[in-house]
Amino acid sequence: MLRSLRHLGRLWVIARHFAHYDAFFLVEAHPAGRSAARAAGFLWRPHKTVKALRPGVRLALALAALGPTFIKFGQALSTRADLLGEQVAADLSGLQDRLPPFAFADAKATIERDFGVPLGQLYLSFDETAVAAASIAQVHFAVDTAGNEVAVKVLRPGVEAAFARDIDVLRWLAELAERHAPRVSRLKPIEVVATFAESVRVEMDLRLEAAAAQELAENFAGDATFKVPAVDWQRTAEHVLTLERVAGARVDDRVAVVAMGVDPVAVVKAAAEVFFKMVFHHGFFHADMHPGNLFVTPGGVIIGMDFGIMGRVDAATQKTLGEMLLGFLTRDYRRVAEVHVRAGYVPLDKSVDAFAQACRAIAEPILGKPIAEISIARLLGQMFQVTETFEMPTQPQLLLLQKSMLLAEGVGRTLAPQVNMWELARPLIEGWMRERLGPEGKIADAVGASIATLGKLPRIIDRVDAVTADLARSGLKLHPDTARAIRGEQPGTSRTARWWLWAPWLAAAGLLAALLLR
Q1: 406 Cα distance to chain centroid
Q2: Distance between CA 262 and CA 377 in Å, rounded?
Q3: Is 248 helix (H, G, I), strand (E, B) or coil?
Q4: In angstroms, rounded to a whole number, what is the distance separating the alpha carbons of residues 148 and 108?
Q5: For residues 285-314, b (16+ Cβ closer than 10 Å) or e, as one string?
Q6: 282, 190 in Cβ contact below 8 A?
Q7: How far is CA 448 from the centre of its chain?
Q8: Which of 48, 55, 334, 385 could link 356 by a cystine bridge, Cβ 3.0 to 4.6 Å?
Q9: What is the Cα–Cα distance from 334 to 351, expressed in whole angstroms?
Q10: Residue whose C-alpha is closest to residue 136's, from 206, 65, 231, 63
Q11: What is the pLDDT of residue 347?
Q12: Cα–Cα distance between 137 and 240 in angstroms, integer?
């Protein structure tokens, strides 16, 4: 009750902004939602300028007006084409996470509080003007005490408390939705909010971002096409992240890329291969690959930035995705359907043939386009839209992956609209599929499974030793029902039958005695 009362004030603000931007369409399918929309519409009239806008644009404006938490949540929802529809999801993907910078004095106070020393002991110089500012942090250029140029990311003051408050409101609304709108439960709103909360928690501890950057750098050590700025761990703490300063053109700035003498098609090919390696070789991918986080050097190297949102894909999911991709590329829709069922994405009681038909209906209009216009990310997005028909549970890791693919495709089309980035990477894709899905891959999987089973043997042996020791100390204890059954206290049990009931226990006792007396 107290929790509900605490959130009502924030809910009042949310309702006001949703009414101003006529963005209640998300909840109008439910009677309570319609009533709330009518009441809010009576209290607050929509802005005159929003009536002609698409619903997704109106929702994006409402979320932007509600501040940092809701901007981030809108970006997370942009992956949910299954929930919002493709157009609304696309409109939300344009939400820009840009806020006015906070004062240099606050940034200085945060750094000195985290390290317990004056700013001058950490940096020879520190630019007071931020070069970028977002909802969670802002970035300043500086020079460390060794004379190296660095970029320093500093957490926004008060952001942790603000996010905690708003996430608790979102969690409360998700719980209400699952309780009072059973159809919503398939979409796992509580789990979606929990996933969002976890991603925000990671973003707000800059040590975790530093760890992600270093892991990604190690994965691409020696790779000539992709670089991650080095982490300065001595100047990194919970609220401060110091990275090597890098320079280059934004990856979506075709004019600047060409002016550096770099072939845009080569950059798109490299970007596709980098993304493929992240997902299918390392199982650890950059999940926020928008143009502001990717730069290109004069040598054609792609530089990644901002590692607060990362995704992981385990070996089983890698294989499932590979088989799905192969099925779509070869137009083998039954194989696609069988992969979904085998992976548990589609319930066993659903018709494989019907799901294969749905896959065909989704894929043919997309795969039938000219090669430069084919969007694998759009294909995945439309697949999520059939989830309700086939009662498919939400797969958060695939939603994050689809968002990343969509961003990567957008970059590719900006740089080289005449090519398809996945087609450029096709030799890499086919090689991986032969390796993982061919005979060699199946043998490797079988060997891996055997090794995993063998790895459990020491624990099994330890458990047997523990049980044996316990028996040696306390003797063999039987449940009263078992003892009565052994004594033959069951109607109709003959003396001979009772003897055979004793036999296994006598054999077990003899074996135990032999083990204990060795």
Answers
A1: 14
A2: 26
A3: coil
A4: 19
A5: bbbbbbebbbbbeeebbbbbbbbbbbbebe
A6: no
A7: 26
A8: 334
A9: 11
A10: 206
A11: 80
A12: 9
Q: Can you tell me the distance from the alpha carbon of 324 to that of 385, in angstroms, rounded to the nearest whole number? A: 16
**How many Cβ atoms sit within 10 Å of the Cβ of residue 164?**
14
- How far CA 226 is from CA of 209, 218, 229, 287, in Å, comes to 18, 11, 10, 16
Q: Alpha helices of 121-158 — where are they, by DSSP H? A: none
Q: What is the pLDDT of residues 123-142, one digit of tens each?
A: 999 999 999 998 889 999 99
Coil, strand or helix at 132: strand
Angle between helices 55-66 and 68-77 in degrees, nearest 10:
150
What letter represents residue 99's amino acid? L
Catalytic, out of 288, 445, 462, 470: 288
N-to-C CA span, the chain: 66
| pLDDT (average), residues 150-168 | 92
Look at the pTM and tell me if it is higher than 0.90: no
Name the helix (H) or strand (E) containing 465. helix 439-474
Angle between helices 31-43 and 2-20 (to 10 degrees): 60
> d(Cα 355, Cα 341) in Å, to the nearest integer?
9
- Strand partners for 152: 140, 242
Tell me which residue of 353, 354, 336 sits closest to 345, measured CA to CA.
Answer: 336
Angstrom CA distances, 290 to 200, 411, 412, stand at 18, 8, 11
Is 288 catalytic? The answer is yes
- Comparing CA positions, the residue from 283, 151, 156 lying closest to residue 216 is 283
Q: Which residue has the tokens 């949703």?
A: 18
For residue 151, the SS3 value is: strand
Query: Which residue type sits at 452?
Result: A
**Which residues are CB-contacts of 507 (< 8 A; sequence separation ≥ 6)?**
none
Q: What is residue 27's three-state secondary structure?
A: coil
